[in-house]
Design a protein that fits this description.
The chain has 183 residues and is mainly β. It has one helix and nine strands, in the order H-E-E-E-E-E-E-E-E-E. An eight-stranded antiparallel barrel has the order 1-3-4-5-6-7-8-9. Strand 4 and strand 5 form a beta hairpin. The chain starts with a helix and ends in a 6-residue tail after the last strand.
């Protein structure tokens, strides 16, 4: 038992030596495209998110960014439209980190869950979704990073047969790192 515990602690230490923890603040403006007998696109709807992230080095040009976010969306009718999301992104530094110009490309995937009450039988939107994103980012300093991204749902968000709903949006995030990367 002691060996297992020691192995877990050593493994966690190895992953945190070159890792950074931090908090994020973001805004996204998204719209839904509904297709079926009649097709239409909704107007843009905004949401504010706060979250935590863990960034770890994979190589000189690649970082892995995992995140957990709570989103506060515009109300739908009289109900709140809040979400919980988990994301996994790669940050690719084309010039490499040894030159450290700060610019990176960020593809990623995310899993979101709506906190809206879905038990009334009237909702046309599924409470969970898988999304893909592509973004550009820049490390402003060792502590601050800014990211702009485009996201699209990879799963159908409709709860009604014969109708498909795809949600897409543009977003911006500011990341604050609590721990500096060891160099």
């Amino acid at each position: 038992m002691k060996k297992l515990f020691l192995s877990i602690v050593l493994l966690l230490f190895c992953f945190t030596v070159n890792a950074q923890f931090g908090a994020s603040l973001g805004y996204e403006s998204s719209k839904a495209k509904v297709s079926g007998d009649e097709s239409f696109t909704t107007g843009y709807s905004g949401s504010l998110s706060i979250g935590l992230f863990y960034e770890s080095d994979i190589s000189n040009k690649l970082d892995l960014l995992s995140s957990f976010d709570f989103g506060i969306g515009e109300k739908v009718g009289d109900e709140s439209n809040n979400t919980i999301a988990v994301g996994l992104d790669l940050q690719y530094y084309p010039a490499g980190k040894e030159y450290y110009d700060g610019f990176f490309i960020q593809p990623g995937i995310g899993f979101g869950y709506s906190l809206r009450d879905m038990d009334d039988g009237r909702d046309a939107i599924v409470g969970i979704g898988l999304s893909g994103s592509i973004g550009l980012g820049f490390d402003l300093s060792e502590k601050l990073t800014v990211i702009g991204s485009y996201r699209i749902n990879l799963s159908d968000s409709s709860n009604i047969d014969g109708i498909t709903t795809k949600i897409s949006g543009f977003g911006a995030s500011l990341l604050y790192k609590f721990k500096f990367r060891n160099k």
